[in-house]
């Protein structure tokens, strides 16, 4: 696959940012870091500097690795008289899903730590250059496309909780519609801060102090030590054989790789029919325990075990980048 480059993304502007970095001589990891920052603006219903995620990384000539920068729950959850935590129901058409909002629902963000850790390990361009395309987007704004408009409609009830985002997602009292401009002037200032202070400023500096202070005063659980102790973690990905190939998939705590392993396990049964396979897996495995049990049967070598509640059927966004050096 050397000398071939490819990108897939959830928004055309996310893709354009990744492409810009590849054309500037950056590798797949540089492009991924830049694309992730762009997603905060291009796909604000799906990605955020206050969120977390996972990255499956392949450096040509080396074994694949997984970077876990998922959010971390607060270390302490004392009784709070003013706990800011309550449910909001979101209607997805075929089902209603309950989300919990408020400061007490917040976890330590992992995205910034993850992107800086990836840059330390694999980046080839200065971080300031990777931030630049998103800084431009923050100034110019992004037109709300069809998919993001649908997301904003679904999540409108959540966005209305926080008055600070009103100017971003609403025109007066009306939700912005497809074709309207999403403008993020304050996010440009945040990126300027990151360019100067880096992840240290985020977790141990002004931002960590401000968020933990607000949390303490207004009914949340996050504290300074939660931010200061956060670390992104490198993990070994799931590895399964399939048709004389080796598949590398995200490991726990992500459920995505486990579900993909099940899907590939069923593909032969359903003659390669992806739609039928995905439907069957979705219907059969609604709980992490069910997924673990089936994986023990299909792939006992994985030693994959999960506990938890029912599996949410709603996801966020992702992207893929392959560069001319064979990195992905």
In short:
By secondary structure, this protein is α+β, with helices and mostly antiparallel strands. The protein has 12 helices and 13 strands. It folds into 2 domains: 8-234, no CATH class; 238-302, no CATH class.
What would you note in describing this structure?
- By secondary structure, the chain is α+β, with helices and mostly antiparallel strands.
- The chain has two domains: 8-234, no CATH class; 238-302, no CATH class.
- 43% of the residues lie in helices and 15% in strands.
- The protein contains twelve helices and 13 strands.
- The strands form six sheets. A three-stranded antiparallel β-sheet has the order 2-3-10, with helices on one face. Strands 1-13 form a two-stranded antiparallel ribbon.
- Helix 1 runs antiparallel to helix 2, helix 2 runs antiparallel to helix 3 and helix 2 packs parallel to helix 4 (127-140).
- The longest helix has 19 residues, at 185-203.
- The radius of gyration is 20 Å and the shape is globular.
């Amino acid at each position: 696959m050397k000398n071939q480059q490819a990108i897939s993304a959830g928004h055309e502007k996310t893709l354009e940012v990744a492409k810009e970095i590849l054309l500037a001589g950056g590798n797949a990891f540089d492009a991924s870091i830049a694309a992730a920052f762009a997603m905060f603006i291009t796909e604000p219903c799906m990605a955020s500097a206050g969120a977390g995620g996972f990255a499956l990384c392949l450096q040509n000539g080396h074994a694949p690795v997984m970077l876990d920068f998922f959010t971390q729950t607060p270390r302490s959850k004392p009784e709070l008289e003013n706990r800011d935590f309550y449910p909001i129901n979101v209607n997805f058409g075929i089902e209603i899903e309950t989300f919990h909002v408020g400061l007490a629902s917040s976890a330590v963000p992992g995205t910034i730590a993850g992107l800086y850790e990836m840059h330390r390990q694999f980046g080839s361009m200065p971080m300031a250059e990777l931030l630049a395309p998103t800084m431009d987007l923050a100034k110019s704004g992004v037109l709300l496309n069809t998919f993001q408009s649908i997301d904003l409609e679904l999540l409108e009830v959540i966005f209305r909780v926080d008055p600070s985002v009103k100017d971003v997602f609403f025109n007066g009292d009306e939700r912005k519609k497809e074709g309207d401009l999403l403008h993020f002037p304050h996010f440009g200032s945040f990126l300027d801060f990151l360019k100067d202070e880096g992840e240290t400023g985020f977790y141990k500096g002004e931002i960590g102090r401000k968020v933990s202070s607000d949390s303490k005063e207004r009914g949340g659980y996050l504290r300074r030590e939660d931010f200061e102790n956060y670390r992104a973690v490198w993990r070994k990905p799931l590895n399964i054989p399939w048709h004389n190939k080796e598949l590398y998939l995200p490991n726990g705590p992500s459920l995505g790789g486990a579900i993909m392993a099940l899907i590939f396990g069923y593909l032969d049964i359903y003659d390669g029919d992806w739609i039928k396979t995905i439907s069957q897996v979705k219907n059969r495995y609604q709980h992490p325990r069910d997924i673990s049990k089936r994986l023990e049967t299909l792939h006992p070598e994985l030693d994959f075990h999960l506990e938890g509640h029912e599996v949410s059927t709603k996801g966020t966004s992702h992207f893929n980048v392959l560069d001319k050096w064979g990195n992905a």
